[in-house]
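Backbone-to-sequence.
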């Protein structure tokens, strides 16, 4: 998950970061046990790594949630509700315009990616602590009950989510910070804002289809364990250690403090590697077959391997991309995108500047002088739908 940030100079995250050993290539990428996958699912869906310290004690997010976030408002900013966590028929009996209903949903562990502690007293339920999990940004639902409420779909980027608008509810923020968060918009998040103070959100990426790819994110700073640790510690505010001199991040736990992140990274990776990609949409097989030949001639030098997950890193100018975000990263480059589930990933590029596959094809045809005729492009688009 690429997670939640707060400007370092104004709001320091609790002291939390990643050991240098994480930069070594991960092993055990295949053959993960069912027990490991199940453990990873639990972590992905429900583990906050004790980030309640950040979201509650620093940002005080429990206060606006309890006072002003009713279910209608929550759904409007892209929060999702797990229908399988709800008692049968409950939605027909509650007030969806009451913040108390949101607290009740959190108490039932039904709000995807949100964990809360709720106490019951004479005045009713009170939300006392709140934290977030990986699923907040990297899960959605199938809308089988109503828009925003249904069965979980883990691994899908929640492009309905407006993380900035949610964070902006914090009473601990300055007006300047609140304006920056509100500028991000739906489906975007800046995982470096609290590191470098710059504002440049990117599209929330999916968490599926990464098995076999050595570059887990847009800029390929490290493998999936590296990025999970980075997000858990520096963005979610979890209790762990992350160190990367390349980006000037050095968050180390105090001596004697338990690292709640690192021991769970292998199982978390196992679960993410087990996630299925979305089924390919309908496509024209004849055109796709021709497009496969176009791909082999024009695209395969960068998109390598049987599943097209092996990828290189490229200078921004080489691939015709704005360099701003890359220059804020450890690699200073952009990766070649893994193609599994590509048709479900629009809009494309790190900044969402390509609305559809044809826009991507036209961009690279021009940038790389590929010399494709119109029929080549149409055929290639059909082939890309097949992944």
């Amino acid at each position: 998950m690429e997670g939640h940030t707060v400007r370092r100079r104004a709001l320091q995250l609790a002291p939390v970061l990643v050991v240098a050993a994480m930069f070594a290539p991960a092993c055990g990428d295949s053959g993960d046990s069912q027990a490991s996958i199940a453990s990873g699912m639990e972590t992905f869906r429900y583990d906050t790594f004790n980030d309640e310290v950040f979201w509650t004690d620093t940002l005080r997010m429990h206060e606006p949630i309890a006072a002003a976030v009713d279910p209608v408002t929550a759904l409007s900013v892209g929060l999702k509700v797990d229908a399988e966590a709800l008692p049968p028929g409950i939605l027909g009996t509650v007030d969806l315009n009451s913040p108390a209903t949101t607290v009740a949903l959190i108490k039932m562990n039904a709000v995807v990616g949100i964990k809360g502690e709720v106490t019951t007293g004479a005045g009713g339920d009170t939300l006392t602590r709140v934290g977030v999990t990986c699923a907040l940004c990297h899960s959605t639902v199938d809308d089988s009950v109503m828009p925003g409420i249904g069965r979980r779909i883990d691994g899908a980027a929640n492009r309905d989510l407006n993380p900035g608008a949610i964070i902006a509810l914090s009473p601990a923020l300055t007006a300047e910070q609140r304006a920056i968060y509100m500028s991000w918009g739906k489906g975007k998040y800046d995982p470096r804002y609290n590191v470098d103070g710059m504002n440049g959100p990117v599209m929330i990426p999916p968490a599926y289809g990464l098995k076999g790819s050595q570059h887990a994110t847009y800029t390929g700073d490290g493998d999936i364990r590296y990025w999970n640790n980075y997000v858990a510690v520096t963005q979610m505010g979890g209790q762990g250690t992350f160190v990367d001199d390349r980006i000037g991040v050095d968050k180390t736990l105090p001596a004697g403090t338990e690292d709640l992140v690192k021991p769970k990274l292998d199982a978390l990776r196992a679960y993410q590697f087990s996630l299925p990609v979305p089924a390919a949409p309908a496509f024209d097989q004849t055109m796709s077959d021709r497009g496969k030949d176009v791909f082999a001639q024009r695209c395969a030098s960068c998109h390598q391997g049987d599943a097209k997950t092996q990828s290189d890193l490229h200078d921004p100018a080489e691939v015709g991309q704005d360099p701003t975000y890359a220059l804020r990263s450890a690699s200073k480059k952009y990766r070649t995108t893994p193609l599994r589930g590509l048709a479900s990933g629009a809009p494309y590029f790190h900044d969402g500047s390509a609305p559809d596959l044809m826009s991507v094809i036209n961009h690279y045809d021009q940038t790389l002088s590929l010399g494709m005729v119109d029929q080549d492009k149409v055929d290639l688009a059909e082939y890309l739908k097949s992944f």
